[in-house]
Specification:
Shape of chain B: globular
Shape of chain A: flat
Oligomer: heterodimer
Number of helices of chain A: 11
Largest interface: A-B, 25 and 20 residues
CATH topology of the largest domain in chain A: Rossmann fold
Strand content of chain B: under 5%
Order of helices and strands of chain A: EEEHEHEHHHEHEHEEHEHEEHEH
Helix content of chain B: over 70%
Number of domains of chain A: 2
CATH superfamily of the largest domain in chain A: P-loop containing nucleotide triphosphate hydrolases
Number of helices of chain B: 10
Distance between the termini of chain B: 18 Å
CATH class of the largest domain in chain A: Alpha Beta
Largest sheet of chain A: 6 strands, mixed
Strand order of the largest sheet of chain A: 5-6-7-3-8-9
Radius of gyration of chain A: 24 Å
Chain lengths: ~325, ~230
């Protein structure tokens, strides 16, 4: 549905250098800070920015094709809405431009729980409400197939924040490609199916799960356990092999280990041994820098593995050739 | 599609209190000049009102206010951003905004020119009906040219600051009757209202020049929004 092939682009102060991506249906995260180029990639896909070199294809067409434009929705951090209109008029206008049947505005807004905004004038909306209206328009469109959102859970009406991840998941299951650009590892981990890690306009890593990356982070994986008796569990965890550190909080225990799976097993054993009640057990998302370092670690590990296999293969070939011919 | 895309700029123009205030204000100034001109008892009061106040002052500022209302005190491309976000082509969104401004300026310019003519009509002015029609014709042409002129200006600068630059250029270059006045709507409009023509240009040529101004500026403005 979305393909970027060797795309270089510039929008001061951002610059992208030879980015290649292919995205099908699903929720995809561009993970990076504001200056890392995530929003520029979204703008390129939406046809709001043009590549200097390389090629962008969306829904089997160019992003600037009129037919493609109507099926792509971009919601930036500060979406532009026609300010002299009411929210109902805006939704009717959007439907007319996209060429889709008109639907009840309150019903559309109700998808994100903001139906109360239907009669408000756009000029009276707070930034979070404006974003909720823009996202509601996009997710309830019958034509949109590619949805691009910058920081989906930031500066958004609180009523919409709780519903948006579920709505995005539903749309992705209907075959939409949803791409989000965010600096929040937690948001990306909560919403997206796969992650592209960006730094200074270049892709530095890819991961299907940020939890899997956690084990490659320089400090290892962190497990946070909300528990009835943190003291008992902390003591039990400290005796477990594979646990490198344990910290006790008021109602939780945070533990660190090199391997995420081994850490989870250790936690399981400690919980059974102490008999404490567990409210939540969660592998903590790495920070953005840790995720980048982890992605680099995965790449290095992959390279090391490949190198070792190649060496082994060369050794085995050499041994075979040195065997005396009978 | 034109009607759909016109909804947003029309709403901005008609509902924005600042735009409405500016339009009503400049219309009131035109009416006041017309009444004052008539009270002075001049036999060519309509000509004086149109030539001294309406043409050089009110119509440019009215068109400036209309263009500002249509783009919402932003650049032309930014004003079309909401429509582009819903899938409209940036060029079409800009072209329709220019069209709204040009039509509003044409209608406003023509009606107000006719009103000024009627209110200020003096004893030595041509017959009222014919004179009002001629004023409306000149006011409409001038309005169209100014509307497109200022929309072209709005395509420059993040806040559409090019509008102000073109207003100043029109005042400075169009004031005289030399060759520089050929490059501005002001010189040609003055010619149509019976003032000194730029480089002795006939009225028909000035009318054609205003039409050319409107078309060229509108096309250029829409093209710049790509």
């Amino acid at each position: 549905m979305i393909a970027l092939d060797g795309v270089a682009a510039r929008r001061a102060p951002l610059a992208l250098a030879s980015v290649s991506l292919t995205w099908g249906p699903g929720i995809h995260a561009l993970l990076g800070g504001p200056s890392d180029g995530g929003s520029l990639i979204l703008a390129l896909v939406a046809g709001a920015a043009r590549p200097r070199s390389g090629r962008v294809r969306v829904l089997d067409g160019e992003p600037t094709d009129l037919d493609v434009r109507g099926r792509v929705a971009l919601v930036p951090l500060q979406p532009a809405l026609p300010e002299a209109m009411t929210v109902t008029e805006v939704l009717a206008l959007a439907a007319a431009i996209r060429g889709e049947p008109q639907k009840d505005a309150a019903e559309r807004l109700g998808t994100l729980g903001v139906e109360a905004l239907a009669r408000r004038a756009v000029g009276t909306l707070s930034p979070g409400e404006g974003r909720a209206v823009a996202i509601a328009e996009a997710v309830t469109s019958s034509r949109v197939r590619v949805l691009l959102i910058e920081e989906p859970l930031v500066a958004l009406d609180p009523r919409a924040v709780t519903r948006l991840p579920e709505v995005l998941r539903a749309r992705s299951q209907e075959g939409w490609a949803v791409a989000i650009a965010t600096a929040s590892v937690r948001d990306a981990g909560e919403i997206a199916d796969d992650h592209v890690l960006l730094k200074a306009g270049a892709i530095v890593g890819r991961a299907t799960s940020l939890d899997a990356l956690a084990g490659f982070a320089p400090q290892g994986a962190f497990l946070r356990i909300l528990v009835s008796d943190p003291g008992a569990l902390a003591a039990a965890l400290a005796r477990e092999p594979g646990v490198e550190a344990v910290a006790r909080r008021a109602t939780a225990v945070v533990t660190r280990g090199r391997d995420a799976v081994e850490l989870a097993r250790a936690a399981g054993r400690a919980i059974l041994a102490t008999g404490v009640n567990v409210t939540e057990l969660r592998l903590q998302s790495p920070s953005l820098e840790e995720a980048r370092a982890a992605a680099a670690g995965v790449a290095a590990a992959t390279y090391e593995t490949a190198l070792e296999r190649t060496r082994a293969s060369v050794r085995s070939d050499r041994d075979a050739s040195e065997e005396p011919q009978l | 599609m034109i009607a759909t895309l016109a909804r947003a700029p029309m709403a901005r123009l008609l509902r924005d209190p600042r735009a409405r205030l500016a339009m009503v204000g400049w219309s009131a100034v035109a009416v006041a000049f017309a009444i004052a001109s008539r009270w002075r008892g001049s036999s060519h009061a309509a000509d004086h009102a149109l030539l001294d106040a309406y043409g050089p002052l009110v119509l440019p500022l009215l068109a400036y206010a209309i263009a500002g209302g249509v783009v919402g005190a932003r650049s032309l491309s930014r004003s079309g951003a909401p429509l582009v976000a819903f899938g409209a082509s940036p060029t079409r969104a800009a072209a329709v905004a220019v069209l709204v401004a040009v039509v509003a300026c044409t209608v406003g310019g023509a009606c107000l020119a006719a009103a000024v003519d009627i209110l200020a009509h003096g004893s030595a002015d041509p017959p009222l009906g014919r004179d009002a029609m001629a004023s409306a014709y000149a006011g409409g042409l001038g309005g169209a040219a100014y509307g497109a002129w200022f929309m072209l200006g709005a395509s420059f600068g993040k806040q559409g600051g090019g509008r102000l630059a073109l207003l100043v250029a029109d005042w400075m270059l169009g004031a005289g009757d030399g060759a520089a006045a050929l490059l501005t709507p002001r010189g040609h409009l003055r010619n149509l209202f019976g003032g000194p023509p730029p480089v002795d240009l006939p009225e028909r040529a000035s009318a054609a020049a205003l039409v050319a101004f409107a078309i060229a500026c509108a096309l250029l403005a829409a093209r710049r929004a790509r």
